[in-house]
UniProtKB/TrEMBL annotation:
Gene3D superfamilies: Spore Coat Polysaccharide Biosynthesis Protein SpsA, Chain A (3.90.550.10). The keyword Transmembrane helix applies. It comes from the Bacteria. PANTHER family: GLYCOSYLTRANSFERASE (PTHR43685), SLR2126 PROTEIN (PTHR43685:SF3). It comes from Kribbella capetownensis. This is Glycosyltransferase family 2 protein. Coiled coil: none annotated. The chain crosses the membrane at residues 431-450, 503-523, 555-575, 587-619, 631-651, 687-704, 713-733, 739-758, 765-786, 934-954. InterPro entries: Glycosyltransf_2, Nucleotide-diphossugar_trans. Keywords: Membrane, Transferase, Transmembrane, Transmembrane helix. One of its GO terms (molecular function) is transferase activity.
């Protein structure tokens, strides 16, 4: 009695139903196909009902259906027994792989019998008979025409012994999974299908391939028996590629029939169910089987190169997993490679397969994926993974319930559809337009600073000539002196920015657009209106110019301006993320720590102010909850990343007022200029102080509103904190430029949030206030373009020395030059110039008074008229030249002219120089550098760890073409 079809089997459309006959279009004699289907199930209760429906819809159906259950604990066995025409279920252990389960089912039940009316294999003159084995997974569903189309292609092309269908996404999607599969010699599975590619008939040409999926594979019986089925060492993953590779080596062709469609869920690869027959991770198992398949089948002459390729790939992928905070992925990589190589199963497999070698490798070489394709796919997957994980990592909850979809729609500019696409995009993206204007404006404003030489100012020493010299300065200093922490960070930035000189050019001349882009990252977190966001980012970028950071060459403030909004975005992510299970974001906390380390290094005073604010905010406002601990952790991390510079800041508080690159900047206080103090404009800034008055007035007016005051108050808090820090710094005699920049940034945030709240108000007062803000910004931008970025900042040679003295510092002479400055009425000052110095970082790493005492004693004697022994003493100090820049003190010049051992050398107008005779004295300089190797190594390790922990987590994926969402190893 035939079983009844299950309810709902009309799942398939009527168009999918097959015709009644399988005829060869070429008119060749008919062939009788006898099909034995084997279904292997393991914990497949979720998918077997759909497979049963699909089997009911098949026409023709298999002549025999064998069901094998591999130790399932759910209803799999009952569902297998209920399939149409199924033989009694064959039960095997849960550790049985797919290929072995198929073999056990065939041993227990056997192939379908040949009808007696036909005769065995046509030897009685009847229709020829061909026996087939059809393999099915429990998580697949063949379309009603699937078996018919497979047999039709087998009739048309009888030379092909293995056929495979087209695989689509389960349960009935048009997304393609496979139309044949191949592999590279590096072990990468390649389907030739792009992620998310839809089936539009683009792959519907039957063709020969290296292998086909075991889900729906149709194998001729003689091929199956000649190859002894699937390799038992491959319980799952890559067993189909290994089988197809062996079939191709043995002379059996493998083809794909795209008109035969099967829908596949790939439950094991996607992690929707536990792996059967193994305790290993899906990724580890897939990699191990990939190595085994290549090693067991590749030509022997290629094995040494392939093993080296596997080793290199494992190293690179392990580094990628470690960087992506998935060390278990790196463990899986090495376990898969070493386990496969050392187990030795592949060597025995090579011996057993020597009898299959009937076709040379060169004849089937075209079936394999080229290495360049594998490299391209790896790059594409890496790029897409990074972008996807970054979006997931920094995605934040909606700021407030009032930020609704309707409001976002209101903030979007409406553009007529008939306008060109590029115009619509520009109108809808005002910040893109503003940023392009800022970038072009930066180039125009720097017109007088473009050319040869290096950027210099009275607060910016010349950049180092090379990365090597910059690294030496970052890791070496006189004994007892700590090299500044910002040099190491600047070295890391210079490695990707065309060297130290290029890095200085980008940070100074490109500070306005870079700061604007950074501010946009912060404002997009809580400012919805695009125009308000574009204005806030643009005004923030122009604030770097009005603060005088560019024109004065204050590289520390420029870096702080770029980093501050990024720190704010990280803090916002920590404070505003309120999920049911997880609060805060440790990834954002690590990133915030890195930002604070940069502030501590480049602008210590600003870094200290921000860290104190975050600690009090984390403890008092957020409490000692997860988010508060994350903020405190970020501050501690920032202090640790700049060790031992942190210790120097504690021991020498005066260094808090310094900026990177040179001496402390000018400070203002109550007794200097009240207008400059209240408007946050340092003395000597290129823009007049009254440019900031409209901004401050609008920020004050915004406080009178009742709605959305939270971020406005935070902006005002930043401004007042900058004002308080400026007062303290000015009383201590330190620099206040970065602190005053914080004041301006706070006002900009307050106005941008207020603008966002009022939106497109039609009130005349509101429009007038916003018009004042726009006009002020436009006037400031015009002033920036007209005035330019020059001022105290200028471009020239790295040293103010005569050409012959500058060249003498190069090998082989390597001269040391004592530069002495004696202005009338002032004390004598000096600097010892060697190795092309002084350069950036020299002031922070200057020798101590004890180390420079021998030179100081000689100059003190010269200032008092000299004793006649100074020439010999200078030679003993390994000094080659004494140079007096203009204006030259006549008394000192006369004293040096009269000293034995000093010979007058040529000099420029108003200068004077003397050559020290060192022919009779082997001198030694008292200033020696000590390399802080241990601290640099520890610092590199700490920064690598911090960078790794602030990056998104990398997911291990199994190489199946199921889109990025279906290859996760859960």
């Amino acid at each position: 009695m035939e079983q009844e079809a299950p309810a709902g089997w009309e799942f398939f459309d009527s168009v999918d139903f097959p015709t009644d006959h399988i005829d060869d279009p070429m008119g060749r004699p008919r062939v009788r196909h006898v099909v034995t289907a084997v279904v292997v199930g393991h914990e497949g209760a979720a998918w077997l009902p759909r497979l049963s429906e699909a089997l009911w819809a098949l026409n023709p159906r298999p002549d025999r259906l064998i069901a094998v259950d591999t130790g399932s604990t759910d209803e799999t066995a009952e569902l297998l027994a209920a399939m149409p025409g199924a033989e009694p279920v064959v039960s095997v252990s849960a550790r049985t792989g797919f290929g072995v389960a198929v073999a056990r089912g065939l041993e227990a039940v056997g192939f379908a019998p040949i009808p007696s009316a036909v005769g065995p294999y046509g030897d009685d003159g009847h229709m020829p008979v061909v026996e087939w084995l059809w393999l099915l997974h429990d998580d697949c569903a063949p379309a009603p025409k699937a078996l018919e189309q497979l047999l039709l292609q087998a009739t048309i092309t009888p030379a092909v012994g293995v056929w495979g269908p087209k695989l689509r996404l389960w349960p009935r999607d048009r997304e393609l999974l496979e139309v044949g599969v191949t592999t590279s010699l590096g072990g990468r599975r390649d389907t030739g299908i792009e992620t998310g590619e839809l089936d539009q008939g683009q792959h519907d040409q039957p063709r020969n391939v290296l292998a086909v999926s075991s889900a729906g594979m149709l194998v001729r019986r003689d091929v199956w028996e000649a190859l002894h089925g699937f390799d038992p060492r491959l319980p799952m993953f890559r067993d189909d590629i290994d089988f197809g590779w062996r079939a191709s080596r043995a002379g059996f062709q493998v083809g794909v029939a795209p008109d035969a469609v099967i829908y596949h869920a790939q439950a094991a690869a996607t992690g929707e169910r536990a792996l059967a027959g193994t305790r290993r991770h899906a990724y580890q198992l897939d990699r191990a089987h990939a190595y085994y398949t290549v090693l067991a089948n590749a030509p022997g002459k290629l094995l040494p190169l392939l093993i080296l390729r596997f080793l290199l790939g494992t190293i690179l992928r392990s580094i990628w997993f470690v960087i992506g905070k998935t060390p278990s992925g790196a463990v899986d990589e090495w376990t898969a490679l070493l386990g496969t190589l050392l187990a030795g199963g592949w060597t025995q497999a090579r011996k057993n397969r020597r009898s299959l070698d009937r076709v040379p490798y060169d004849d089937i070489k075209g079936l394999f994926s080229r290495s360049v394709h594998a490299l391209r796919h790896n790059l594409e997957e890496t790029t897409s993974t990074i972008s996807e994980r970054i979006r997931e990592a920094w995605a934040d909850e909606p700021e407030e319930q009032v930020v609704t979809t309707a409001r976002r729609a209101k903030s979007t500019a409406r553009v007529a559809a008939d306008k060109p696409r590029w115009r619509r995009q520009l109108i809808r993206r005002p910040f893109l337009v503003a940023w392009v204007v800022l970038a072009l404006g930066a180039f125009i404003a720097a017109r007088s600073l473009i050319g040869g030489g290096v950027l210099r100012s009275n607060v910016l020493l010349p950049a180092h000539e090379s990365l090597a010299s910059l690294w030496h300065a970052a890791s070496a200093a006189p004994p007892g002196v700590t090299p500044p922490a910002w040099l190491a960070q600047f070295w890391a930035f210079s490695t990707v920015m065309f060297g130290p000189t290029g890095a200085v050019n980008i940070l100074l001349l490109g500070a306005v657009p870079l700061a604007g882009l950074s501010a946009w990252v912060l404002l997009r977190a809580f400012v919805v209106d695009r125009v308000a966001r574009a204005w806030g980012a643009s005004a923030y970028g122009l604030a770097v110019f009005t603060n005088g950071a560019i024109s004065q060459g204050r590289i520390g403030t420029c870096v702080a301006a770029i980093v501050l909004p990024l720190l704010g975005a990280a803090v916002h992510t920590i404070a505003r993320r309120r999920r049911v299970v997880v609060q805060g974001s440790w990834r954002a906390a690590w990133f915030a720590g890195i930002c604070q380390a940069v502030l501590f290094a480049f602008t210590p005073a600003l870094g200290l102010l921000v860290s104190i604010t975050l600690v009090f905010g984390g403890v008092l406002r957020l409490g000692w909850r997860r988010q508060g601990r994350q903020l405190v952790f970020s501050v501690v991390l920032g202090l640790l990343l700049v060790l031992p510079w942190t210790v120097q800041l504690v021991l020498h508080p005066a260094r808090l007022g310094q900026e990177a690159g040179g001496p402390p900047t000018a400070s203002v206080g109550p007794g200097d200029s009240l207008a400059h103090l209240l408007t946050g404009t340092p003395v000597g800034a290129p823009a007049p102080w009254w440019f900031a008055v409209p901004l401050i007035l609008v920020a004050l007016i915004a406080l009178l509103r009742e709605s959305r005051q939270r971020y406005e108050l935070l902006g005002w808090f930043a401004a007042l904190a900058g004002l308080a820090g400026t007062l303290i710094a000015s009383r201590l005699g330190g620099g206040s430029g970065p602190l005053m920049f914080l004041m301006t940034a706070g006002w900009i945030v307050a106005v941008a949030v207020a603008w966002d709240s009022v939106g497109k108000s039609t009130e005349i007062i509101v429009q007038g206030v916003l018009g004042i803000v726009l006009v002020t910004t436009i006037v400031t931008a015009g002033f920036w373009l007209v005035r330019g970025a020059d001022g105290p900042l200028w471009r020239g040679p790295a040293q103010d020395l005569p050409a012959y003295l500058a060249s003498s510092q190069a090998p082989p002479q390597n001269a040391s030059i004592l530069v002495v400055r004696k202005d009338p009425g002032n004390a004598m000052r000096y600097s010892l110039v060697k190795d092309g110095g002084p350069r950036m970082g020299a002031l922070e790493a200057a020798p101590t008074a004890v180390q420079s005492k021998p030179i100081t004693d000689v100059l003190s004697t010269l200032g008092g008229g000299g004793s006649g022994e100074e020439g010999r003493q200078l030679a003993g100090l390994a000094i080659d030249y004494v140079y007096l820049p203009a204006p030259v003190d006549q008394n000192l010049q006369s004293t040096l002219d009269s000293l034995p051992g000093l010979t007058r050398a040529s000099a420029a107008d108003g200068d004077a120089s003397w050559l020290v005779d060192r022919s009779k004295i082997k001198g030694e300089t008292p200033l020696h550098d000590q390399t802080h190797t241990l601290w640099r190594i520890l610092g590199i390790i700490a920064w690598i760890i911090a960078l790794i922990f602030c990056l998104p987590t990398v997911r291990r994926t199994v190489a199946v073409p199921h889109g990025t969402h279906a290859r996760r190893d859960r």
